[in-house]
Amino acid sequence: MILPDIAAQMDAQALPLDWVGMQGIALPVTIEGHRVNARASAGVNLIDGRSRGIHMSRLYLALQSIEQDELSPLVLRRLLSEFLDTHEGLSTAAHCSLSFDYLVNRPALISSLAGWKSYPITVDASIKNEMFHVELFVRIAYSSTCPCSAALARQLIQQQFLDDFAGIELQEEAVLAWLGSSEGIVATPHSQRSEAHIKVRLATNDDTMPFRVLIDSTEAALGTAVQTAVKRADEQAFALANGQNLMFCEDAARRLHVAMQALPWANGFSVKVEHAESLHAHDAVAVSEWRW
After folding, report:
1. FRET label pair with 52: which of 26, 275, 286, 292, CA 20 to 30 Å apart?
2. 0.70 exceeded by the pTM?
3. How many helices and strands (H and E) does the chain possess?
4. Would you call 8 helix, strand, or coil by DSSP?
């Protein structure tokens, strides 16, 4: 029995389409030797305006062919080339996106504790106008302490010191007790959990995906990445890092811009930081791009 192929029938509107494909495809991928659950999207353009559709099953089967391979730019280029080979005469551009969580075991700042952190990552690969590109996107949480709030808090503490010790001969023990009390430290700066959204275009198409380098470079530039398991000594060290690392969203974006420019394999990037304000009911945002 011959099954009907409605998709093979010509469309009277004859309109090319920029993009046709699938999204939300469950797919295991291999990252640094480990199997990771990913969500994939895949598609091609449709230059033949009379065609009713593409061969989605061919895209789906091509995706399955990369499950066992270590994810790399070369593997993605081969995949997109297969997309186009199976759509000869229909398509000239192809795209694939893979999203997954990248787990890193992070040590505490002081103690021997450690814990896992999850970094959401998306890998976008495309062939368009015969040019192949791979872009990495990662979202990283960190703490940001407001420099303005810190200055205002210091001023209040100074004034409280003058009020409490006016005309009194200073004694070391009394000053230390005052510094350790809520009567002395009458104000503290506000901090907030913040996020850096980093998107980097790779300059080379070699066999590696620099996920860890990108994450480590981002966290090193910010200086106050959120922690996992902590003891009181770790929490104190984190408080110290925040106090010595005050930043507006503009400061964070500039730090990350410099850090991304130093990556030898970055051929362009987009940096966006979001500080979820604890003072305001809105977020503070800054963006910086290079060669985008």
Report:
1. 26
2. yes
3. 7, 8
4. helix
Q: How far is CA 42 from the centre of its chain?
A: 21
Number of other residues whose CB lies within 10 A of the CB of residue 275:
25
Which CB contacts under 8 angstroms, 24+ apart, belong to 257-263? 257/288, 257/290, 258/221, 259/217, 259/218, 259/220, 259/221, 260/198, 260/200, 260/217, 260/290, 261/290, 262/217, 263/200, 263/210, 263/213, 263/214, 263/217
Tokens for 214, please give them: 């990108």
Judged by DSSP in three states, 57 sits in: helix
Residue 113 half-sphere exposure toward CB, CA atoms < 13 A = 15
Paired residues of 133 in beta bridges: 126
Contact 251, 148 (CB under 8 A): no
pLDDT tens digits, one per residue of 110-165: 999 999 999 999 999 999 999 999 999 999 999 999 999 999 999 999 999 999 99
